[in-house]
TrEMBL record:
Its EC number is 2.3.1.234. It is found in: Cytoplasm. The gene is tsaD. Its cofactor is Fe(2+). GO terms for cellular component: cytoplasm. The keyword Cytoplasm applies. Fe cation binds at residues 110, 114, 301. This is tRNA N6-adenosine threonylcarbamoyltransferase. Binds 1 Fe(2+) ion per subunit.
Length: 330
């Protein structure tokens, strides 16, 4: 089995990992503080930060794994989906590294990789299983028949779950990304405010209506109680979190009923949410499902999941040539 250098640069994290025999030897991620002051990811800043970070990040990943560039057998990289300028930096680096050393290249679909993050370490689910991928850019229900055979059976028709957290938090004046802040504040509050739970039908999700519902509810309250947000911040956060989590768990339950799959996995940055983790564990106990939630390091954007996917593709002989280009959408 090969030693793979993996590169992830689809959004605002520059990440490099070394995978040997499917095992993660190192996983190094450089975040980008530059976006905090803008309240969201600014694509131009993101690609410039990737350019600054990519070489040192790869160097640290190699040294933490106790390897040198000479040990690498293949290079796996995120081809998309993501921000085109950000992807361009990782793809160009991967191609240059492979060209200089005459190594095979493996392209990876970022969403497929989030699902396969479950194979970065034990306990690993058996195929087939059901995965709810919830991140800042995506919300998907996926039937994972095998590593490289994944079928999306539900998706968001507008905002992603992480975006719902981030945009609601922005309305409350919380720093970006607001998901972790809402999570923290929610622990001290109670979900006493009812917000709308838009349902586009089937196994799909919709979160943009929730944002509007929060805005109108708060505006109405502020008319009679000007300090409503400040005085009820914890309860508001608990209510937002409870609404998003209950929408996610309802569709997940429907997906389990429709597919008959009872191994349920969480993936993506929003899996870090304590309300979602606790809610899913409680539901699983009640229904008799087995639950898989990766360590936070493997939930948020990381190159280890790209390397793990790369290892599956290496074994399947799926390589690409130097003509490969990044793709913002698949
Ligand atoms: O997977 P990820 O790191 O990047 C994307 O591919 O989008 O996910 C980032 C998203 C952000 O929207 C962030 O607010 C959300 O995950 N997030 C959380 C928590 N930690 C991260 N949302 C709710 N609760 C958390 N604890
Ligand atoms: Zn992601």
């Amino acid at each position: 089995m090969p030693i793979i250098l993996a590169i992830e640069s689809s959004c605002d994290d520059t990440s490099a990992a070394i995978i040997a025999d499917g095992e993660v030897l190192s996983n190094v991620t450089a975040g980008q503080a530059v976006h905090e002051e803008f309240g969201g990811v600014v694509p131009e800043h993101a690609s410039r930060a990737h350019q600054r970070n990519i070489v040192p990040t790869v160097a640290v990943a190699l040294s933490r794994a106790g390897k040198t560039a000479d040990d690498i057998d293949a290079v796996a990289f995120t081809r998309g989906p993501g921000l085109i300028g950000s992807l361009m930096v990782g793809v160009s680096f991967a191609k240059a590294f492979a060209l200089a050393r005459n190594l095979p290249l493996i392209e990876v679909d970022h969403m497929q990789a989030h699902v396969l993050a479950h194979f970065a370490e034990a306990p690993k689910p058996d195929f087939p299983f059901l995965c709810l991928t919830v991140s800042g850019g995506h919300t998907q229900l996926v039937v994972v028949k095998s590593a490289l055979d994944q079928q999306v059976i539900g998706r968001t028709i507008d905002d992603a779950a992480g975006e719902a957290f981030d945009k609601s938090g922005k309305m409350l004046g919380l720093p970006y990304p607001a998901g972790p802040e809402i999570d923290k504040l929610a622990r001290a509050g109670k979900p006493v405010i009812a917000f709308a739970k838009p349902d586009p039908g089937a196994l799909d999700f919709s979160f943009s209506g929730l944002k509007t519902s929060i805005l109108y509810t708060l505006q109405k309250k502020i008319k009679t109680e000007p300090d409503f947000v400040k005085e009820n911040l914890e309860d508001i956060c608990a209510s937002i979190q409870d609404t998003i989590v209950s929408i996610l768990l309802r569709k997940l339950t429907m997906a389990v009923e429709e597919t008959g799959l009872t191994q349920v996995a969480l993936a993506g940055g929003v899996s870090a949410n304590s309300g979602l983790r606790d809610g899913l564990r409680a539901l699983a106990e009640e229904k008799g499902w087995s639950v898989f939630i990766p360590r936070i390091e493997y939930c948020t954007d990381n190159a280890a999941m790209i390397g793990v996917t790369g290892a599956f593709k290496f074994a399947a002989g799926e390589f690409v040539g130097q003509e490969v280009a990044p793709a913002a959408r698949f």
